[in-house]
Amino acid sequence: MYCSVLMGGFVNVFTYKQNINCSLRSFTTKTPDLPPVLFQINTNGFVALAKPPAQQEYLGKMPSGFKMIAALLGDLDNSDGHGKVYYRQDSSPDVLNQAAGHIRRAFPSDEGVEPTNALIVTWESMAAWGTSGRGDGLDAKRNTFQLALVSMESSSYAILLYPRDGLQFFSTSVEGESKLLEAGFSEGIVSGWFWNTQQGTYFRTTTDDEISIRELTKYEPDVTGRLVVMVNLYPDETKTRYPIPETSQPRYTNPEPSQPRYSPFAPRYPNPDPVEPRYTNPKPVEPVPPHSRPQHPQIVVIDEDEDLNVNVFAYNLETCANNRHKCSAFADCRDYSQGYCCHCRPGFYGNGRDCVAEGKPQRMNGKVNGRVFVGNSPSAVEFGNNDLHSYVVANDGRAYVAISNINGTAGPSLQPLSSLGGVIGWAFALEQPGYQNGFSLTGGVFSRQAEVIFQPGNERLSIKQHFKGIDEHDHLVVSTELEGRLPAIPLGYSVQINPYKEIYQYDRNLITSSSNRDYVITSPDGDVQTRNYQWRQTITFQSCPHGETSRPAQSTQQLSVDQIFVMFDADNNLIRYAMSNKIGSVHSGPPEQNPCFTGRHGCDINAVCRPGEDLQFSCECVTGFAGDGHYCHDVDECQGGVQVCGQNAVCRNQPGSFSCECSAGFVFASDGKTCIAENRPVDHCQRGSHDCDVPQRALCSYTGGSDYVCSCLPGFTGDGRACRDVDECQQDRCHRDASCSNTQGSYICRCSPGFHGDGFQCSPSECKQTSCQLRFLMYVPQCDEHGAYKPTQCHQSIGQCWCVDANGQEIPNTRTGPGSTPLCESPTVTPLPIGPTPRPDVHPIAPGTHLLFAQSGKIEHLPLDGYRMKKEEAKPLLHIPDRVVIGVAYDCMEKMVYWTDITGPAISKARLSGGDIIPLQSPEGIAIDHISRLLFWTDSMRDTIEVSKLDGSHRRVLFDTDLVNPRPIVTNPAYGRLYWADWNRDGPKIEMSNMDGTERTVLVKDDLGLPNGLTFNPGDQQLCWADAGTRKVECMDPHRRLRRQIAEGIQYPFALVSFGRTLYYTDWRREAVVAVDRQSERETEEFLPQKRSRVYGITTTPTQCPQAYNYCSNNAGCSHLCLPRLGGFTCRCPDAADGRCEERNP
């Protein structure tokens, strides 16, 4: 999507795509002596001098092959109606004079700065692609920025402007990976020697560090962040036209660094050398004569006068009308003369952007990275995404912090660093009257840098932490980096930290503190030594510069920390910290005795303490909870009889809160509650509204926008909308001693009698006779073409017929007299395949198939493109807070998701709205028979396998003996079979039975360890399992008991699902979804969820159900349960049956 603007000459052209929001204004421009220049304004945050290619060719792959100016490049979205792109040409004297002032400030040596016109482009409220309409908080993050291109007679300048209150997101998803936004200038492909071309210079004003993007807006709090750059918009026609004096010095080769008044922030961009050396133009830089156009851009950070009208290029966007969505849902927006501010409502606290309920417990998640040396060791201990978790009881200021995967070398030595998590205590410290904790000021968005100097060894450790606010799960997010050296503390030594006080000095957007702290080390023998360290830290944050909230209530505050607990848990590789925190006055005086300020009040953890006179107080449940304050329970806002969400929206209850989610085809409006019709391109392939042939013959491929392409599958020919089968047998593909049978989309080759092979290669052989062919007793048995017993055997001499099993043994009570033949079912043994089965690539994968997998309190949704996981489109399908989801199953008939929850415990189901709960003991594995409409599950607490109707009725225990730890369970509806695994460590096994509980048998018991995952592929009748003990994935044909290994050396699989030729399993150690190709027997792909934690059950959501005969159609006349079995069904009663139930075996 782009807008085109032609500047120069007398031409004014406005062409644009209809789905880009451009504010169109006609203009006529005349720039003497310069050729016209065509600008392409792109919604992805850049202006190009040529039509850009598809975004896959430049997003995340800079430098680009075309000339561009990137104001803030990323995969941006304006399709929801909030984001807009405006442009205008402005040659008014006020604008040109103001632009000239910027240029003179940046280039004071330039003379004759007389702009003739300016093109001003504004990207307003742009979202990161893929977040719009999600309703999880990410869609509320918007960026607004601006680019002004100013032209003069012989040169051009670019002025980049960014909002004073900061950018709201710093990266977008590109091909499934998070890529930082970029700002800079690309020369594109340029001509070299002998008609060769090469990549021109690429100048970046940002780096690969997120801080460089943040600092685009943080040079001066009261002034919009801006850069002024000299750019060359025209081909250099003057290089050979001007003589170059030997003494002339090009101003862009070594510019004088500017000295802005806003120290200590050093200017990052005065050096014009490319940030990435590999992009440097290898040709020597030549001087440029005065007033000629520079070959490369010159970048200078400029300082602004206080009386400068910083909104000269800005639209009037700094009002609540345009920015209400930036405030918390629990805040009010208030306009001031210079802008707007967000203020938390009564009962909540924070900075207005993020507000939390008073007294509500807070959770924090994050990662720890870096390198730390311990003692005199020359080798560093590496921290790589170690998990940090914290829980804060806000109404008494008690904070708990734990960091995982800490080895025995660094763990004991980290014990003195209680302040590693102490900043969390400061953020939610118990506030004394008139004082504010960290969250009240920052809203949980701040950066902290601390330095620790240990005595007497003078070891130094640097701590950098970035607190990123509250995420969609209502958790505060933090990233931590450690760098330096710690004094060694041996394993087994304990550390005690005495209570301490710390003085915090507050200025606008800056907080500093320092202190000396003592700690005591005790050896296992009781030896004690006291050490200390010096602590200095700086906290920076962005507050609202308007109104009465621009500064904290007190310029100096004291943090009091006591009840400090530290411990290294060597068994679990955890470092734990706990402490109680209060924030109050630095002056000595009688401490507050009211229980609300001491934390000794006994209120529920979801209650706020309200102080009264003297020692009086009351407990009040926080918003979202109800009770007497000493006991509080969650309020279900979605069931209150009041419509809290608008039309076309669904309400989701959460502990203490709720969320609104839009129905399919709708997105949120600016109020965050009302859902409006989605104005987006339609993926007809996924929606099923295409005109391609049926999925068995054709494939629909989405190509972007609302476009798609139809193509016939292998084995078919046509235009994709009408496909017909190719008769491969006319192409002589089989061996000359084989017969060919054409099938839809494929063919089968069979060696002729007297030959053996796969049909493609056949060799003469003496046929080994089967037991049926060798058996001659009282009669000659009838054998089929494969040498197996026919199910019906007859003896002509006595005129009787009977049924036999797979071994030729007569089935009792089936013998008939002369003139009648029994109806015998086929034996349970599947005939050996003759020749190859149809190729896997001939069977199409139905469009719209997805993976669903469980991860703690949510079920994630991961689309598939064929067998490839579309990682960039992964997102939560269902949020189930404070629950541990184990098993996941999908009913392809009703498009219903079922899951087991061991914290309930319960089995639940849902479409995109709430679930029906079936209370159980401890359900783990879950399976569905979509044909007979039955639900099966394993219960590891009761050691049972049970069945019920899909609605949970008519519950019956199938097995309650010889089970120890049953977990995975799967069904084979076509054969009426049930398979499950028991990971009993003393005797693991995989078993099989009919769905009615008959014919229970052990399939596998040898060479098993912990068979966690189990799946069944109905296409080729393969039962596969993933074993966390043997660390293997294996498959077998349960009919013929043929077993083969698929993969080995895997880490810790939990669940497994089969889809076509690919197996997908969840892995606890890798915290990932892993794909394995069954044919090549190798791992093909890995998906790492954005929030790293253990992943549990996994299933697929096929768009078409596998077809099979339904023996239980209309419940087959059974009064209660109709349970399939091989070749028939059985009527069974539920365990809690009434007297009207009748059991029978038809």
Automatic annotation (TrEMBL):
<dbReference type="InterPro" id="IPR049883">
    <property type="entry name" value="NOTCH1_EGF-like"/>
</dbReference>
<dbReference type="GO" id="GO:0007160">
    <property type="term" value="P:cell-matrix adhesion"/>
</dbReference>
<feature type="domain" description="EGF-like">
    <location>
        <begin position="681"/>
        <end position="724"/>
    </location>
</feature>
<dbReference type="GO" id="GO:0017147">
    <property type="term" value="F:Wnt-protein binding"/>
</dbReference>
<feature type="repeat" description="LDL-receptor class B">
    <location>
        <begin position="933"/>
        <end position="975"/>
    </location>
</feature>
<dbReference type="InterPro" id="IPR050778">
    <property type="entry name" value="Cueball_EGF_LRP_Nidogen"/>
</dbReference>
<keyword id="KW-0084">Basement membrane</keyword>
<dbReference type="InterPro" id="IPR018097">
    <property type="entry name" value="EGF_Ca-bd_CS"/>
</dbReference>
<dbReference type="GO" id="GO:0005886">
    <property type="term" value="C:plasma membrane"/>
</dbReference>
<keyword id="KW-1015">Disulfide bond</keyword>
<dbReference type="Pfam" id="PF07474">
    <property type="entry name" value="G2F"/>
</dbReference>
<dbReference type="InterPro" id="IPR009030">
    <property type="entry name" value="Growth_fac_rcpt_cys_sf"/>
</dbReference>
<dbReference type="GO" id="GO:0042813">
    <property type="term" value="F:Wnt receptor activity"/>
</dbReference>
<feature type="compositionally biased region" description="Polar residues">
    <location>
        <begin position="246"/>
        <end position="256"/>
    </location>
</feature>
<dbReference type="GO" id="GO:0005509">
    <property type="term" value="F:calcium ion binding"/>
</dbReference>
<dbReference type="InterPro" id="IPR003886">
    <property type="entry name" value="NIDO_dom"/>
</dbReference>
<feature type="region of interest" description="Disordered">
    <location>
        <begin position="239"/>
        <end position="295"/>
    </location>
</feature>
<keyword id="KW-0106">Calcium</keyword>
<keyword id="KW-0677">Repeat</keyword>
<feature type="domain" description="NIDO">
    <location>
        <begin position="71"/>
        <end position="224"/>
    </location>
</feature>
<feature type="disulfide bond">
    <location>
        <begin position="794"/>
        <end position="801"/>
    </location>
</feature>
<dbReference type="GO" id="GO:0030855">
    <property type="term" value="P:epithelial cell differentiation"/>
</dbReference>
<feature type="domain" description="EGF-like">
    <location>
        <begin position="592"/>
        <end position="633"/>
    </location>
</feature>
<dbReference type="InterPro" id="IPR000152">
    <property type="entry name" value="EGF-type_Asp/Asn_hydroxyl_site"/>
</dbReference>
<dbReference type="InterPro" id="IPR000742">
    <property type="entry name" value="EGF"/>
</dbReference>
<keyword id="KW-0732">Signal</keyword>
<feature type="domain" description="Thyroglobulin type-1">
    <location>
        <begin position="769"/>
        <end position="824"/>
    </location>
</feature>
<dbReference type="InterPro" id="IPR000716">
    <property type="entry name" value="Thyroglobulin_1"/>
</dbReference>
<dbReference type="InterPro" id="IPR000033">
    <property type="entry name" value="LDLR_classB_rpt"/>
</dbReference>
<keyword id="KW-0130">Cell adhesion</keyword>
<keyword id="KW-0325">Glycoprotein</keyword>
<keyword id="KW-0245">EGF-like domain</keyword>
<feature type="domain" description="EGF-like">
    <location>
        <begin position="316"/>
        <end position="356"/>
    </location>
</feature>
<dbReference type="GO" id="GO:0060070">
    <property type="term" value="P:canonical Wnt signaling pathway"/>
</dbReference>
<dbReference type="InterPro" id="IPR036857">
    <property type="entry name" value="Thyroglobulin_1_sf"/>
</dbReference>
<dbReference type="InterPro" id="IPR011042">
    <property type="entry name" value="6-blade_b-propeller_TolB-like"/>
</dbReference>
<dbReference type="InterPro" id="IPR006605">
    <property type="entry name" value="G2_nidogen/fibulin_G2F"/>
</dbReference>
<dbReference type="InterPro" id="IPR001881">
    <property type="entry name" value="EGF-like_Ca-bd_dom"/>
</dbReference>
<feature type="domain" description="EGF-like">
    <location>
        <begin position="634"/>
        <end position="676"/>
    </location>
</feature>
<dbReference type="InterPro" id="IPR024731">
    <property type="entry name" value="NELL2-like_EGF"/>
</dbReference>
<feature type="domain" description="EGF-like">
    <location>
        <begin position="725"/>
        <end position="761"/>
    </location>
</feature>
<dbReference type="Pfam" id="PF12947">
    <property type="entry name" value="EGF_3"/>
</dbReference>
